[in-house]
Amino acid sequence: MESEKIMTKGDWSPAESTDLPEFGQQLEHNRPWTARFVDSFKRDPNAHATPKGTVGADGRVFDVESAAANTASSPLQRHLKGRHLQMIAIGGSIGTGLFVGSGSALANGGPASLVIAFGLIGIMLYCTVHALGEMAVLFPVAGSFSAYSTRFLDPAWGFAMGWNYAMQWLVVLPLEIVAATLTIDFWNDSINPDAFVAIFLVLIVVINLFGVKGYGEAEFVFSIIKVIAVVGFIILGIILNCGGGPDGGYIGAKYWYDPGAFNNGFKGLCSVFVTAAFAFAGTELVGLAAAETANPRKSLPSAVKQVFWRISLFYMVALTVVGLLVPYTDPRLLSAESSVDAKASPFVIAITNAGITGLPSVMNAVILIAVLSVGNSSIYGSSRTLAALADQGQAPKILGYIDRKGRPIVSIGIASALGFLAFFAGSEKRGDAFNWMLALSGLSSIFTWGSICLAHIRFRAGWKKQGHSLDELAYRSQPGLVGSWIGFIFNCLVLVAQFWTGAWPIGYGEMSGAGMAEAFFSVYLATPVVLAFYFPYKFWYRTPFVRSHNMDLHTGIRDLNIQELIAEEKAERASWPAWKKAYKFFC
Known about the structure:
Elements: H1 33-39, H2 64-72, H3 82-91, H4 96-138, H5 145-152, H6 155-184, H7 193-209, H8 211-241, H9 254-257, H10 265-280, H11 285-288, H12 296-325, H13 346-353, H14 359-391, H15 409-418, H16 430-440, H17 444-465, H18 480-503, H19 513-524, H20 526-541, H21 562-574, H22 578-586
Helix pairs in contact: 3-8, 3-12, 4-10, 4-12, 4-17, 4-18, 5-6, 5-17, 6-7, 6-14, 6-16, 6-17, 6-20, 7-14, 8-12, 8-14, 10-18, 13-14, 14-15, 16-19, 17-18, 18-19
Subcellular location: Cell membrane
GO molecular function, one term: amino acid transmembrane transporter activity
Membrane topology: Multi-pass membrane protein
C-alpha cells in the first residue's frame, strides 16, 4: 500500500496556496447585491459582545477598565478624512442659531451685547475644542467626551453626560424636521406639512444609512453652502453699510447711537448667552468623529484650529455687520412664529431694508439647508453616543450593535424612530410639546463643554502624576491648562447667568407665577435632568471619583510608536520656512 505523501516546505508553491481571509476580514464575493445588502446589517465579526463587567459582593461595581477597553476597540469604520473634519469644524454648527436666533438676541441685548456675548462664548469654546482635540488625538475612542468623563472624572458623571448629550440630539431630530417644514411655509403654506415631514425624515435617515461616509459627505456639502452664504452676506453687508445698496445712503454706526448699543443692561447681555450657546452647539462633534477618522493624529489638529476662524470670521464679523444694519428696536426681530422664521432673521431684515428683492428667498433656502444639516448631525451624534454608552455598560447592550458596515444600526433606528414625532407638526397642540422638547436641549451643550474642560484638567493631572511629559503628547492644546480652566469657569458662570435670567426674566414684573415658572424651566430644564441621571447612578453603583494615579492612560492609544512619529514631525517642522510654520500654527 502506497504511503500517504506528506507535503514539506519545499513542496509548497504560491500557485498551490489558497488566500484564506484573516479573522474578521470581509471579502466581497460574486453574490447578488440583495444578499450583500442583507448581510451588511449583521453584526461586525470584530465586534465585541459588551461584557457585564466586574461585579462585586453587592453586585453594583462599575468596571472602568472594561468600559475603556470597549470604547477603544469599537468596530466603527474609519472613513472620515481631513476634508470632512475641517468642514464639520468650520461650518458644522452654522445654523438657525446664527441665521434666526441672533434676531431675538439682538432685540433683547442690543448690538454690543450680541457681539460681546458671542465673543465670550467663542473664547470659551476655543479653549474647549482645543482641550477636546488634545484628548481625542491621543485617545480616539468611541463616545469621546462622555467616555473621557467616565475615565478621568467619575463613571456616574460620564453616565449623566452621555445620556444628556444623547437626549439633546434625540429631541433635536423631530424639532429640526418640523423646522424644515416651516421653512417651506415661506414659499407655500397650503401644503400639508406631513408630506414634507416624510420627505425630510426619509432623506436624513437614508444619508445616515450610508454610514459615517454618508454623514461626512453630506456635512461637507451642507457646510460649503452655509459658509458661502455667510461670506456672501458679510461682503453684501459691508457694501450696504457703506451706501452701496439700491436705496443708497451711508449707515455706518448710527444704530449703535440711536437706539443704542445696549438694551436691558447687564441682564440683556446675560440673556444672549443661551442663544450664543445654542448657535455654537455641535462644534464638539469633531471630537466624536475622531473614532471614525482614518488618521486623527493628522486630521484632528487641523480641524480644531479651524474653529478659531469660524468664531472670528463667520460669527463675530457677520454679527457685527448685522448690528450695524438692523436696529434692535425693529419689531420684526421678535415677530418669529418659529425658530426658523426667515422673516425674523436679521440677515433677511437687513437685505429687505436695503430694497433688494429675491435674496430673502435665497436666505430661506440656506436656512432650510442648515436645518437639514442639524437633523443629519442629530442622528449621527445620538447614535454614536448611545452605542458608546452601551459599550461602557451604561445603556442596554442592544444599542451597542454595530453591523458589518460599521453602523450602530440599532441606535440609528432608535434615533430615526423618534423622528416620527415630527408628524405632530400638523397638530394644534404641537407648540407646547415641542417647546418642552427644546428646553431639554437648552443648556445641554454648556454641561458638555464644561465636562470636556474639567476632564482635560484631570487628564493633565494624571498625565503628570504618572510621570509623563507634555512632549509625549501628539497634539497639545494651544491655550493649554489655563485655557481649560478659563473654559470650565466660564461655563459655570454661564449656568449662573442663565439661572438669574431664567428665574427673573426680562419683564418678569408683569408675569404671573405660573408664567415665571414656565419661563425658568424653559431655559433651565437640562439641569434637573442631568442631576436626575447623576445622583441615582452614583448612589446605586457607589462610583468613586477617579484619582490621578489610578487613571488609565494607555487604553485607546492608536499610534503605539507615537514617540518616533513625534520626533519625525519635529524634524520636518524644523525645515519649514517661517510662513509655513505660521500657517500651520493657525491652520
